[in-house]
Amino acid sequence: MAEQSANEAPIGPVEALGRALVGGIASFSRGISELGFGAALLVQSGYFLFFGRMRHQPVRLPSVIEQMMEIGIRALPIATVLSFVIGVTLAMQGIDLLKTFGAESQVVLAVALSISREFAPLIMGILVAGRSGSALAARIGTMVISQEIDALRVMGINPVRYLVVPALLAMALLMPLMTFWADVFGMLGAAVYARLELGMSFQAYADATFTALTVDHLMHGIGKSVIFAVWIALVAVVNGLAVTGGAEQVGRATTRTVVLSIAGIIVTDMLFIFVLTRG
Amino acid sequence: MDPTEHMAAGPRDTENAIVTEDAEPVVIDVRDLVTHYPGNAEPTLKGVNMRIYPNEIVCIMGGSGSGKSTLLRQIMALDRPTSGQVRILGHDLSAIGHRDMHELRKKIGVAFQGGAMFNSMTVGENLKLPLREHAKLAEEQMDIMVRMKLAFVSLDPETALKLPSELSGGMLKRAAMARAIMMDPGLLFCDEPSAGLDPAVSAALDDLILKLRDVMGMTIVVVTHERASAFKIADRIVILDKGKILMSGTLDELRATGPKRVQDLLDGVPEETEVANWI
């Protein structure tokens, strides 16, 4: 009885602080370990991509194409709608704010730069993390618990080469293309709104956009998107492979993948901008 | 290193000493195998010694937590031991190179407990996977082989077009068996082949295992807790208990000379401590 009461006794502030500290250290340690695992996966993926054939572990093109279809092509409808809506939203905000200064026509410049440098890679990153990153984590997690990963290994098929490289490559190839797609449809959305609100013709909007936009602006967003793609793929694979137990763990891995991917994208974005704006 | 020299020099646990020093060819040779799960001080396998000879069916039996699955993972080269040695078809798994391991994998088939079929592929594609990876065959040749293997395990050719999720438990196990023998391996591992099946289907799978040995000349290692199945198919039964081999021999030998714990395990009588734990 006495033991039971001791267990139920409320913990003091020092003990609570101690527990929080121990928990924090454990989480930090897990994070470092996962980062290391992710880095090792990236190196291994590069190895299999370039030297896999020499080790009878070639990366098969059909697997990469299948992943590209899943990550990119099948996501195009939602990517198009999102980009268009973001463009319209930015145009509405921009025109409303610039109206104060009588500079509504400058909305073209604001939209072109904000979409190409920031919104297109960010929105596509979040979309791919939520749609494809979570699917990849769930797929790999399910394969772990149903022993499919073991089955690959006993068949002499390296799981990194078979599962990770195609997903990583497909994301790294598709994300820049999707970002460019989002650039186009975002600006189209803004152009449609500018025509309705300001009576600006599509030709005039396009001319102003091409004047404002340089290749550097586009590459700024596209370059970021490649980093986001690699991050999302690695987070999904690390979390998928960490699944143990049953279906509940797959759900947790999926949620964790989405949260960490999006958090990572936002932090990486900030670091990317910090580095580029210092140069 | 000469195996007999190792045995003479190394520490021997007489309780586990089932290794015989004869000149017969050995398919699997396990010596002083010790394994730990990460973070667990108590070893899962505590110095296991075992030899498996060509063309025999060996059933590894034991209660829950006895180390059956851990031993199977070790001899399938899925996990690394803490210490000890596993030799398969003459290859020391701790010292084997990538190329030899790749060749060795072609000679081993594994039928996992849940089938471990890839759910995104049809049964036919599942069966073709080892061929695609290891053999350069035309699609038509692979189709013929798939039909042959499906017929061998008594499945209709149309099964090739179905998804694994469309198969019954017994059919799934047969399909998994068909994939395991696609490369005509000399060595087959079966993890709980009869688990969760009704007696009739279980008996048919037992017959299939006997057929694989008799017709295809395979050496087969079966991990099972199904006593009726083991008694029917095993040339030799290895009894594992708490990470150690209690005894190994034919069913008659075990019945005639086995200690009480062996008799209890053969009769399915739980240990007193197990009963106490349940209560």
Q: Would you write up a description of this structure?
A:
The complex is a heterodimer of chains A (279) and B (279). By secondary structure, chain A is mainly alpha-helical. Chain A has one domain. Chain A is 85% helix and 0% strand. Chain A is built from ten helices and no strands. Chain A has helices at 2-8, 13-51, 61-71, 76-98, 107-145, 148-154, 159-198, 202-212, 215-241, 247-278. In chain A, helix 2 (13-51) crosses helix 9, helix 4 packs antiparallel against helix 5 (107-145) and helix 5 packs antiparallel against helix 7 (159-198). The longest helix of chain A has 40 residues, at 159-198. The N and C termini of chain A lie far apart (68 Å). The model of chain A has no long low-confidence stretch (mean pLDDT 91). Chain B is α/β, with parallel strands linked by helices. Chain B has two domains: 3-107 and 185-278, 3-Layer(aba) Sandwich (Rossmann fold); 113-184, no CATH class. In chain B, the strands form two sheets. Chain B has a six-stranded mixed sheet, with helices on both faces. Chain B has a four-stranded antiparallel sheet with strand order 2-1-4-5. In chain B, helix 4 (123-134) runs parallel beside helix 6 (169-180) and helix 5 crosses helix 6 (169-180). Chain B starts with a helix and ends with a helix. The interface between A and B is medium-sized, with 15 and 24 residues.
Query: How many beta-strand elements of chain A?
Result: 0
Number of domains as seen in the coordinates of chain B = 2
Low-confidence stretches of chain B: 1-20
- Biggest β-sheet strands, sense, barrel of chain A: none
Q: State the secondary-structure class of chain B.
A: alpha/beta
Uncertain segments of chain A? none
Largest interface, Cβ cutoff 8 Å: A-B, 15 and 24 residues
- Total number of strands of chain B: 10
Global shape of chain B = globular
Helix content of chain A: over 70%
Measure the end-to-end span of chain A: 68 Å
Count the helices of chain A. How many?
10
Structural class of chain A: mainly alpha
Quaternary organization: heterodimer
- How much of the residues of chain A is beta strand, in percent? under 5%
**CATH architecture term of the largest domain in chain B:** 3-Layer(aba) Sandwich
Number of domains of chain A: 1
